[in-house]
Amino acid sequence: MDKAKLDDIETGLFLEALYQRYGYDFRHYAQASLNRRMHGITAAAGCRSVSELIPRLLHDESYLNELLSQLSVPVTEMFRDPEVFLTLRQKVLPVLATFPRVNIWQAGCATGEEIYSLAILLEEEGLLNRTQIYATDINDTALQIAEDGIFSTRLLDEYQRNYLAAGGKSNLADYCTDSKDFFRVHERFRRKIVFAHHNLVSDGVFCEVQLILCRNVLIYFDNILQKHVLELFHESLSRGGMLCLGTRESIRTVASERLFTVLDREAMIFHKTEQTSQ
Amino acid sequence: MTRTSRSKPIAKPQRSKIFEMVAIGCSAGGLDALRTILKALPADFSLPVIVVAHTPPDNSYLLPSLLGAVCKLPVSEAREREPALTGHVYVAPPNYHLLIEQHRHFALSVDDRVCYVRPAIDVLFAAAADVYGEFLAGVVLTGANSDGAEGIKAIKRRGGLTLVQDPKEAYADTMPQAAIDTGAVDQVLPLAALAERICGLSSNRPKL
Fold this sequence. Notes:
heterodimer; A: alpha/beta; Rossmann fold; 2 domains; three-stranded antiparallel sheet; 10 strands; about 40% helix; about 20% strand; B: alpha/beta; seven-stranded parallel sheet; two-stranded antiparallel sheet; 7 helices; 9 strands; about 30% helix
């Protein structure tokens, strides 16, 4: 049997063990990225093959958190794709402004850079005070970093450029307190965001929102799981609600299911479609 | 029950291998090198070609049209969940790693940079090696970092063909040299010969 097939079998067994033992279901994650991560995890654990890791997974509960952190690698930036944030500012926030109370959900917030970016936009457009933001992830380590709101100043110059390209009206530094190596997002943003553990695979609707931000999360899911999550988003959005996905994500599924209609193709922003009776 | 010995899907002896995919990686100076190679591909070239080029995010939007202008095959950005079609050239989108799934559709990731870059050649080569095995040809061109070397090893491990631009004539020799230093490279060729070699990969395929 060729090595690639053997790897697939081992990864399948590992994911089955993870699911049956702890209830975390990665069985519908897209395989190529998952394989890459599994290689990294196997090497980091000093094992020669994925199957060697299964006993540890089953018998050592303390390993779970480490594993989850490695399986869902959080990578995010402030104002990543500034043109998307510009579109959010120009096209989406004016719609949100028509609601007396605004609820926003970021699904898969990782370490929080994007949701703080959005919170800054909301403040500049005068909406933050009447907005409640929920930011969720399955990675508790990442959630803790997000909640602290403390980031390395290493990338601050790049973030400032992105911020200005996103139509920033001031200086990013005005929204943070900084020391030499770190900056912290101001408390007035942090208190507007509830960071919570939520698993898109297994957890259901937990709030009704007008905007869902979920960028570059569905790219890690296979078609079955992608469809499941889009249905969850559809259910979680109020009438006229909007969904923002990553700029290079496939909209074929979105379109074929007729759950959403395009609001802005470049920024990958969609309107919820109201279901006609079936 | 008896164990049946499975015959190999493709007969190896005498006949040369029928390749199913060409993956090309380049960095500094890569645009000119890519143009030379893609220009040489005939209109009936029968394999899909995937390109990972490290370019500043803003410029890479232009890459498909810059390459399309000199290539007889259609050139487009690789799109998530879309199949890799024969006779097409695909370019990795800026700021995403490009991978390929078992069912030969593209996948993207925003995982950490590899060798300080995203998209990384290593990521594509390793994923493509898992899918295409010995029927993959990987090509490393000019570049100023060591991305691609791990990918070349992955391709070799799965029995694929590994080709590298001669560092002596490359705009930047670090990347081809790093690939060669792995000891996993089948052939080191100047650009013109490399283009010819790649064209030859499709010639055994029966024309449909």
